[in-house]
Amino acid sequence: MAAATAVSLSFSACRPKGAGSAVSGNAAQRTYVPPGQYDEFYTFTSGGFSGQMSVYGLPSGRLFRVIPVFSVDPEKAWGFSEETKPMLMTSHGFVPWDDLHHIESSFTDGMPDGKWIFANSNNTPRLARIDLTTYRTSEIIEIPNTGGNHCSPFTTENSEYVIAATRFSVPPDGPASDVPIDSYKENFKGHISFVSVDKETGEFDIAFQLKTPGLNFDLSSAGKGVSNGWLFISCYNSEQSHTLLEVNASQNDKDFIMAINWKKAEEYFKAGKGTKQTNVRYAHNKYDEHTHTATHEIKTEVTVLDVADFDDLAYLIPCPKSPHGADVSPTGEYIVGSGKLAALIPVFSFEKLQNAIGNSDFESERYDGIPVMKYESALHGEVEKPGLGPLHTEFDDKGNAYTSFFVSSEVVKWDIKTLEVLDRQPTYYSVGHLMVAGGNSKKPYGKYLVAYNKITKDRFLPTGPELAHSAQLFDISGDKMELLLDFPTIGEPHYAQSLPADLIKDKSLKIYDINNNNHPFKTNGEAEARVERDGNIVRVYMTTIRSHLTPDVIEGIHQGDEVYFHITNIEQDWDMPHGFAIKGAGNSELLVMPGETQTIKWVPDRVGIFPFYCTDFCSALHQEMSGYVRVSPKGSNVALTSYTGNK
Amino acid sequence: MKKLLVLLTLGIALYACSQSGKQGSENNSRASIEQQPSDYDPNRGLGKFDNVEVGDKLDVAMAKDGKVIADLKCASCHKYTDERLVGPGWSGVTAKHQPAWIMNFITNPDPMIDKDPELQAQLEICLVRMPNQNLSDEDARKILEFMRENDGVK
């Protein structure tokens, strides 16, 4: 330990001036997880423009896994295997990339329940559910009537609904959406989707959408405790500008936080008050852990309620200026608006909001049909001179709030009730989102805060023009925040969720039981391994076990055949995947988990002998785990044969 | 180059051995660490089974089920004759080993490979550690019955 500390000290002595001094002496000790021991928290981190989600340990900052979600991943055959291709289907066809923005746990009674992690894609609007037993994306649903699904996947107190709200308002889907772009104010609409989550299976269904004026929705938080049943959404571009938003959407001193009574909306929906829209097309893709196969379907109907048709669904709270975060305190009493161009942080009171609604204490003019509160009547107070460019706020277990400041590059701790600033610590550099362990729940775990910085510059050894984004871990258990650790991240993390390791680690699946493998092309033991031809379609039923592939000699394949290698891994031991790759394949490898069947398609483009092999080191004889396919000209009379070992 | 490869392979094999504790389930690896070498009973093996009662006669139904399981989970590496494939052939195994040893080994292979002198010797020949095929107690018993049938018990 002394050595580790000495190393960290001597290293910090080389840091650029100012940065090293922020680290306290025993930081190494407090982030060191000895070999073979476990971290205290799992941290599920958004991968931003990588489209994936990464899993880190805290406090070590060690990366455990990258889970492919919205982007293809040839390492894991995500989007390449026949089984996973349907997961990336959309109404636009197969989409190999997206921009995964935010992460949210599934919640029960306002606390992470460790069942699922939700994620949203910003470009082609979708919502994903990741299973916390398999650490795989189980479901993806596309969101219709939506431009960019940024304001998502925030959930209600019991994950009754996951929210998906548009960042770019657009005309509703359908042929009438062919309109001049400068008719924005007239034709462009926002939509907020309420996607229900089945309590047992987790399955998504777009229950209903709320149609709103053409605002840009940024982030949201559901009410909890006293404010359960409400949803708070930050809105920018209240100017409803359609061009040069950098200038034109920054004109108004105040934009809005939209307060939505979602229980009321649900009531209206259930009472049949919505309108069925049937000119939408959206994908709904599910992965089945028994057939080891995904299915894709297109849905064509959604129920829409126009908020302007109801007096008691939505209210607008003026909020300075172009707010990003709209974050609800653990008790549900306060809503913090982080106006990214504002010089203060307004904190709204749920109680005052309710009183104002009860007294119809509104501005005289509605905003496109929605009642607008008076700023002061909903205000609990303002945090004065907190910093520049507040973005996002989370909470600890002691009544404190932590707000990230992009422009002044710092995290600021303040008291929720008194609004007094208690501490500020610089971040390196320009923090975007931050995350307190459990900081969006009813009872935050506290202890750690991670700042997800947008700019890295000189924090790590340089790697050319493109740098990994940098995360910074703070200990927030004391009065002052203490910087403990920098660690690089995958893509651009916009948010994360820390879950106590004890909540989920024992639920992690070790193998797929081969007796429950219902894959239609499973090979149930080596005796069933074979090759079958049907016209130009050839199916290879292959097994893997340490350390051979069966069959490993295949002849009678013709150039241009569609060859499907259905690989069943008959191992039943943890951490014993086998890989499969064949020369010239125009897609990826396969990694087949114990008990699983996965398929790769191969169309041989020439005559000859093609080796294939196991790509994942499996035993001392891994290097021997290989085989050959003979490819003959089309119409050749070479018999279709296959064997391993003895003919 | 060849020499280097040999060294590398050896290194990997050694590495695989040194990792063995991690490969088993947590409980098993802990047990294997705590147990002193002198405690090891080469007749019983290491695992949960002490005395496995087998009848004089074959339980035909059980043996039949056992073959189905063995065909799926074992036959990739073991022939039912005395011929070695990846691992040794099964012929004669029930004469050579106590029922408890067999059931302990097939349900708890990794910790037992670390302890058992004969399995250590086998590993030097086969170089592949027998995989844990996640057999239930019942599966293991049925496979034992099939092994008995394979060895001529009627």
UniProtKB/TrEMBL annotation, chain B:
Chain intervals for the UniProt region annotation (Disordered): 20-46
Record keyword tRNA-binding present: no
UniProt-listed InterPro entries: Cyt_c-like_dom, Cyt_c-like_dom_sf
Coiled coil stretches, renumbered: none
Keywords annotated in UniProt: Heme, Iron, Metal-binding, Signal
Signal sequence extent: 1-18
Bias-annotated ranges (Polar residues): 20-38
GO molecular function annotation: electron transfer activity; heme binding; metal ion binding
Domain Cytochrome c: 61-151
Protein name in UniProt: Cytochrome c domain-containing protein
Organism of origin: Parapedobacter pyrenivorans
